[in-house]
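Example record for the data management plan.
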Amino acid sequence: MPDDLNTGGHPRKDDEHGVPAREAPVWPTEDPGDTSPPAYVDPQPPNRMMSSGMATRPPVRSMRFVPPEAGGRRRYVQVLAAAVVLGLVGAGVFTFAHKVGSCSADNTVMLKVSVTQEIEPAVTKAVGRFNNGRQEIGGQGGKCVQARVQKADPAQMTTLLGQGAAIGDNSRPDVWIPDSSLWASLLHSITQGKQVAEVTKTSVARSLIVVGMPQTFADVLRSRGMTAGRPSWDSLLRAGSGFAGPTTNGEEVIPPNLVKLEIPDPARNAAGLGSLTLVQQLWAGEPDERTRFTGMVRAMRNNTVPDVNAGFSKFERDGQGRYPVILASEQAVFVYNQGNPTNPALAVYPPDGSLSMDYPYTITTDDTEKVKAARMLAAAMRTPEIAEDVRAMGFRSADGQPPAAFGPQFDIGQQPVLAPQPAEVHKAIEVWYKLSKGIRNVTLLDASGSTNEKVAVDLTRLQATARATEEVLGLMSDDTKMGVWTYGTASPDGNDWRELVPVGQLSDKSGDGTRRQQVLSVLAGLKASPGPKPALYDSVLAAFRMMKRTYDPDVGNSVLVFTNGNNDDSRGTSLPDLLTALHNEYDPAHPVQIIMIGYGNGVAHDKLQQIADVTNGKVYVVRTPQEIQDVVLDAISRRACTVADC
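Corresponding structural encoding:
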């Protein structure tokens, strides 16, 4: 049992029979320097069985009164009166023995408590017990402490505190109970270590992040040899990201077409942010870490749900026959199943680890009086009563004990619980923001006569390039903005390049179909031209300038060039001129990356590398269209790194 879990009593106004409660010892405080006189609570918990692992105090022994002998009536009356007085004093009725305080406006320290929605009922009950106890700062005659609870979205509160909302600002709480310490870690990084919140040792509840899946899908996995239907994160995320390669531990691979993996928006949900951080930790150091993580983010981007409830709202196989798999907390799975759905969810615990949502009691005020009051209230969050309340709601209590009501739908196993550092949490959300942004690019293709060269039986360089571009298109979501240019072909306006499809959203109407269909049609009809010599450098510079001129700050902007690296136009821009122009015009605040993809043998890698380096781009050499997927994912992943670490 954690040291910070208080197993003392709770304050109550009266018991179940209406008898006034006895006065009692002090609420414990986390502040070892707090020397204030005791506040008063009841040391005797309700007469009920305590949960395992939680200590109980012995009941207060009642005094048995023995009547006096006959003839001792005066003594009897005196003893009876003394007993009544003692009983009343013990019950707190005789206020001259201890004046509780009026809790008037000018004699009250009022704490504003912001709490995440799902645990608010339990916190409200605990605060109610605390308020009924009329706690005082400084002991007898001191100021009364009262608290009021309001719901608050953890992501919004992190932003509020990170932006430095002033102490006393009506929107700023004195105590904050988010669903996870991950938000405090993110806040720590946002403020560059500035102390704006104190995460105490008190956790109100706990709930592990699990995989919610239908029983039918677990049966399918079990039939494929996965122990107890408990796939690893590695296997699940490979399937959800479209990777069909072997897992790192030799586990049976889940077919990508079998899973629809959904993740609550990491920017708004601890389950999503925790899953992202968990995966980053588990894949750290793997050879293809960056590519795999990028693939997962891009796949999840199209399957991100606003919150866990939205994920459970469509807990059915989709039109493609894929089973829904939702990353969620145990408590969210419990609540979903309480509604007796047609398809109950199993809470699956991957054996390679998990994170715990810990509902930390966080002090966000620096007012001395309120800090002391907040520490008194913290003790109200460590009682056996709130432990029972949270377990009844589907949470684990602070000591990790799960609810008895979990039952067989919760396949609780032994797996490590990871604890990321603040910098890791900040990195995870930063990478998510960068990699999940939309894509805007112009694809520049060499269509000169040289691309008629055969690179395989019945496959020219241009045909291979077109197929590779189709592979790229398949990785792009409908909100991708894309255009297609060629160079080395005759242009009606006299340029060295030709615009075949203007940059625009793939889902937009274009002709008789969509822009996506238009791009596919153009690629299918590409033919090599015996016309002008390919002017690679002029065409790259023109594409770069167009993308910079029309820069969209809400997406990643890039020029994707398919070329062998040869520039045969001696009258146009030279390589030194191109490098100088790019160096002068590249804006790190509005970056346009140039990604060069060379196909086959004889690629002028060194020249292309010089061009890419100026814009934090990269050069790739591929020999089959199938290699394009990894190339494009790696290219996208470069958004998440700087020139120094890419």
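Summary line stored alongside the record: Confidence is low (pLDDT under 50) at residues 1-101, 642-646.
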